[in-house]
Write a structure and sequence with these properties.
The complex is a heterodimer. By secondary structure, chain A is α/β, with parallel strands linked by helices. Chain A contains 18 helices and 28 strands. In chain A, strand 25 and strand 26 form a beta hairpin. Chain A is globular. In chain A, 61% of the residues are buried. Chain B is α/β, with parallel strands linked by helices. Classes of the chains: A alpha/beta, B alpha/beta. Strand 20 of chain A pairs parallel with strand 9 of chain B.
Chain lengths: 554, 456
């Protein structure tokens, strides 16, 4: 079989290698980008088309226990959006939480070839991995929830710093994760053990939690930094969704000092106003801090009108939101490790808060000075489906369209923001950064997000159209690992192979002796059955790393 | 592996620690197995309950053919070919079972059904199917079993008999163990059993609530009302068989506990009211979260029925009763659930995996399965009435004893199995992977038309 491809005449966008819309040739062999191929190579004529690396989603919820609970919860949503079988692809269900097969295919049809699942409790990591194997085409990794891990918190409280670091490394290996995820650190214990309460502040030292969230955050940033993971702790801040929470967000970023930190779906953490009352935009304050600190990266978590589903380890928040509109609701407590809440949701343009959230997300995009450190996401499906990405791109690239869209939503909200004054329009090169090159760099994925020699041949080719939503909705060609999967907008190949991306930091085996007694007492499965064997993994890559203070050192 | 001298002979022995018992949904993963490798039997199953001991110790390698067609021994490949042809030729093929095999094998099945445009259903449809439907309606506050051990000071069982069906549920997870915030075990918990009769389980209860048969929904709804502050009706005892004082006492205990849990069984889901019953119970648990932390969970039966629910859900979007005849998955219990499909005489091919409907389905369903109108294919670890009646029968090795893989405990916690000894029979994964590949090839050759949106 001929495994060589040559893409000619395409307008190439490869920001990592400083190529901004230049016509040049891309050669592919054995799944990698190479400098030349033989004359037998298949040729793709990309005249008048944009050639970009495959998209990289840094934060979405697509595999694992909470995702599957949400799938089970919403047959009415699947029914409206069947995903048909074709000659080359399996059938599935669509909607806001698609089935695994549909998820992989739909990401590919947007030109995305990598997507990171953002929250998995270690006890359930096998489940996430199984779903990832069943999510075709796209490479995946996941972030493991450790921020409310009771054993790790006890090590922090007792000041056992070295053992804490070893234990974090052990947990990353045991679960086969990509990095540490912190969700509302310190919030689970008040929720589960104190009749559905929550922590109120990053420095909360109420009697319920003897350890403030700040100490937890600080300890994890330290440990991950010392372990030198390719991606820093990925944090869902305290007080997410509450009016006036931008202070907490800024305090969280300050806690990092000059060490790296990734703030997830920062839009949900950029609200001014008074807690319990209507929110206002704090996009200026937040972007000002992010712009000035090169150690901070973030994804936006853009809210889009229409269907969404809250699915988060922040269980108290989900329950609070259920109070606004009683709906079917799922809570899922994971022993010693995590909480979880799920709630179907609709964002409606005429509602003040929803319209404001939409505007805040866009303001953050437009006020951010460094596209490399801000990543496009909708926190799928929390802010809306990943299928909204092309529309987000159009909103960013087209000022007139944005102005028109603002007319159709709550005017009180629009008048309270500066969105209308922001005339910036993203360029194709900047879009390429916030959807591919940037997230790959934030993640420390050296072989992804660019088209240089040696990179993974994950490539998307778009017709250049005036309507950018249309353009990004349907790439003409998509290649994954050098395999041409989509040609003239249709799947032409049965190829579904993919890899799991993970880290494997070294640790001192004797830490198991420290952890095991806790398991014997408080977990419900045997210690020896907790860690996932390497044999359990299918195709996977360990992403190596060393200590870095910002993404430019990647 | 070690050699031990026993009865003056050398026994080739192996000890397996932390093995998982897949007999019931508890999936206890702390069993120590002693295996006689020469005789290929398990001689000891330390810490297993009476059901688990029976599961492990009675397992022998039977001297039976791997594959048969109409009772005649054939090779595995011949049987797979025949099964593939039967499935691809059928107009309304169904696949049923799946709850007693590993997830890796289950994951092969949905693609087969997708290729043949058939129906897939699991044993969930005859046990907690109504709970799955209720979940779609009202959601569910839930937890892993370790949370119950560590935190639950109020534990209720409704319509189940764990003392006999899940013998270690009390001792390992929910009643007697000491937990992080339950230092004195059972003394720190209030245990309530709700059932229509005094079973062995009732003996464990601090409070036994005997509800009139068929009146679960009424009692649940009155409890919901009382939680919301609605007066408990004067005639509650007449309706439900439970006194007004007891109802009020229960509501107080539920609202004032720190962490409450209700486990429920088929006494609730398979009696009058079905998914209304499960839904009322989940709604009650949801409502209680206004006052305290409260959760609920179905107590699932088979070793990996929870895995089957999960796999079918992530691959199709629906937990059971899924049909692919239009080129995409559709869910409709009553239409695509196996008892109903068979009773109406619809299926012209039926592949039964790790299940024995001929032994326990209603008679009209069994009659259809055994009739000429339906090509019956059986994949199972033992000879059963279903495998005996089957046109194609494949005998496979037993999960958790002969083959490894993943199972999901009743609380959705995935566990990897530790098999004890090899079997001459192939694993479900091997058989179903071969079948999937063959069916896929045949489907491509036949170039079946694919549905388009005009058929929605």
């Amino acid at each position: 079989m001929n495994n060589e491809i040559r893409i000619i005449n395409g307008i190439v966008f490869d920001p990592t290698n400083n190529v901004d819309g230049k016509v040049c040739e891309i050669c592919i062999k054995d799944g990698k980008i190479v400098d030349k191929v033989s004359s037998a190579a298949q040729t793709i004529d990309a005249k008048g088309m944009a050639v970009m690396p495959g998209g990289v989603d840094i934060h979405c919820h697509i595999a694992g226990p909470k995702v599957n609970l949400a799938r089970k919860l919403m047959p009415e949503d699947h029914r409206l959006d069947p995903h048909f079988k074709t000659k080359h692809t399996s059938s599935g269900s669509g909607g806001i939480v698609p089935s695994t097969f549909a998820t992989g295919y739909r990401y590919a049809t947007l030109g995305y070839t990598t997507a990171m699942e953002a929250a998995v409790p270690p006890l359930m990591a096998r489940h996430a991995l199984e779903e990832m194997y069943d999510t075709p085409i796209i490479d995946n990794g996941f972030y493991v929830l450790l921020g409310n891990n009771l054993f790790l918190q006890s090590l922090i409280a007792e000041g056992r710093k070295e053992e804490f670091k070893e234990a974090v490394a052990w947990w990353l290996n045991a679960s086969k994760a990509y990095t540490v995820k912190l969700v509302n650190p310190g919030g689970d214990e008040p929720w589960k053990g104190h009749k559905n309460l929550n922590v109120k502040d990053i420095d909360d030292t109420s009697k319920i939690v003897d350890l403030s969230p700040r100490k937890v955050i600080d300890a994890f940033i330290d440990a991950v930094h010392e372990l030198g993971l390719p991606h820093p702790p990925h944090i869902h801040c305290n007080n997410l969704g509450h009016s006036g929470n931008f202070d907490t967000t800024i305090e969280t970023m300050k806690t990092a000092g000059d060490r790296r930190l990734h703030i997830a779906h920062i839009q949900f953490n950029s609200y001014a106003g008074e807690m319990g009352k209507s929110p206002k935009s704090a996009s200026k304050e937040i972007t000002e801090y992010v712009n000035g600190h090169k150690n901070i990266t973030c994804d936006v978590g853009q809210v889009m009108f229409g269907k969404a589903t809250f699915m988060t380890a922040d269980a108290p928040l989900t329950y609070l939101l259920r109070g606004y509109k009683p709906q079917k609701w799922v809570n899922a407590d994971t022993e010693c490790e995590s909480g979880c809440g799920i709630l179907p949701f609709d964002y409606q343009g005429m509602i003040y808060t929803h319209a404001l959230q939409w505007a805040i997300g866009l303001e953050i995009f437009l006020l951010s000075e460094d596209p490399w450190r801000i990543v496009l996401s909708t926190d799928h499906p929390n802010g809306g489906s990943f299928m909204n990405y092309p529309l987000v791109i159009k909103l960013l690239m087209d000022y007139e369209f944005r102005k028109e869209a603002m007319k159709h939503v709550n005017q009180k909200a629009m008048n309270s923001t500066i969105l209308g004054e922001l005339k910036r329009e993203y360029t194709l090169n900047e879009i390429c950064i916030i959807t591919r090159a940037g997230p790959a760099k934030c993640l420390g994925l050296k072989d992804k997000g660019h088209l240089g020699i040696g990179a993974d041949a994950d490539i998307t080719i778009y017709d250049i159209l005036d309507d950018k939503e249309e353009m990004f909705n349907a790439p003409r060609y998509v290649m994954k690992a050098g395999q041409l999967l989509i040609s003239n907008h249709e799947f032409i190949s049965d190829y579904t192979d993919k890899k799991v991306l993970r880290v494997a930091p070294e640790f001192d085996k004797s830490i198991e002796k420290v952890i095991k007694p806790f398991f014997d007492d408080f977990y419900s499965i045997a210690f020896s059955n907790y860690a996932i064997d390497d044999e359990y993994l299918h195709d996977n890559i360990i992403i190596e790393a060393n200590v870095k203070n910002n993404i430019y050192e990647n | 592996m070690s050699s031990a001298i026993k009865d003056n002979s050398i026994v080739n022995e192996k000890i397996i620690e932390d093995a998982t018992c897949t007999f019931c949904g508890c999936c206890c993963d702390d069993i120590t197995l002693t295996v006689d490798l020469d005789k290929k039997v398990i001689t000891k199953a330390k810490d297993a309950c009476v059901l688990g001991k029976a599961w492990f110790l009675n397992h022998v390698i039977e001297d039976k053919p791997i594959a048969r067609i109409d009772g005649k021994e054939v090779t595995l490949d011949e049987a797979i070919e025949e099964a593939a042809q039967n499935l691809i030729d059928a107009k309304f093929p169904i696949v049923y079972g799946l709850s007693d095999t590993i997830c890796e094998a289950q994951r092969q099945v949905v693609p087969i059904v997708d290729d043949i445009g058939g129906t897939i259903d699991t044993t969930t449809s005859v046990c907690h199917g109504p709970s799955g439907m209720a979940f779609q309606g009202v959601g569910e506050p839930s937890m892993t079993l370790g949370e119950v051990k560590n935190r639950a000071d109020f534990v209720m069982y409704w319509g189940g008999n764990p003392a006999e069906a899940h013998p270690r549920h009390f001792s390992r997870y929910a009643v007697t163990p000491k937990g992080m915030f339950i230092p004195n075990g059972k003394d720190d918990r209030t245990v309530v059993i709700v059932d229509v009769r005094q079973t062995k389980t009732a003996g464990v209860a601090d409070i036994f609530v005997q509800v009139k048969p068929g009146k679960d929904f009424e009692l649940l709804w009155i409890l919901r009302g009382a939680v919301k502050g609605i007066e408990v009706p004067e005639n509650v005892e007449e309706i439900t068989g439970v006194s007004r004082e007891l109802v009020i006492d229960l509501v107080n205990k539920m609202k004032n506990c720190k962490y409450g849990v209700i486990f429920f069984g088929m006494g609730l889901t398979m009696t009058r009211g079905r998914h209304f019953n499960s839904g009322a119970l989940m709604a009650l648990a949801t409502d209680l979260n206004e006052f305290t932390h409260f959760v609920a969970k179905p107590a699932r039966g088979h070793g990996n029925v929870t895995g089957a629910d999960n796999v079918v859900s992530w691959q199709t979007g629906y937990p059971f009763g899924v049909n692919f005849s239009r080129g995409y998955p559709r869910f409709n219990p009553g239409e695509f659930t196996t008892v109903d499909t068979l009773t109406r005489g619809e299926a012209d091919a039926a592949m039964i995996i790790a299940s024995d409907p001929v032994a326990n389905f209603p008679k009209p369903a069994i009659d259809h399965l055994k009739s000429d109108k339906c090509k019956l294919i059986s994949i199972d670890t033992k000879q059963t009435p279903t495998s005996e009646a089957a046109h194609v029968s494949i005998q496979t090795s037993t999960y958790g004893i002969n083959t490894g893989g993943t199972v999901y405990r009743m609380d959705d916690v995935p566990i990897s199995l530790r098999p004890a000894f090899d079997s001459p029979f192939p694993g479900d994964l091997e058989v179903l992977t071969k079948l999937r590949k063959r069916v896929n090839k045949l489907a491509k050759e036949k170039n079946r038309p694919y549905a388009t949106s005009k058929y929605i």
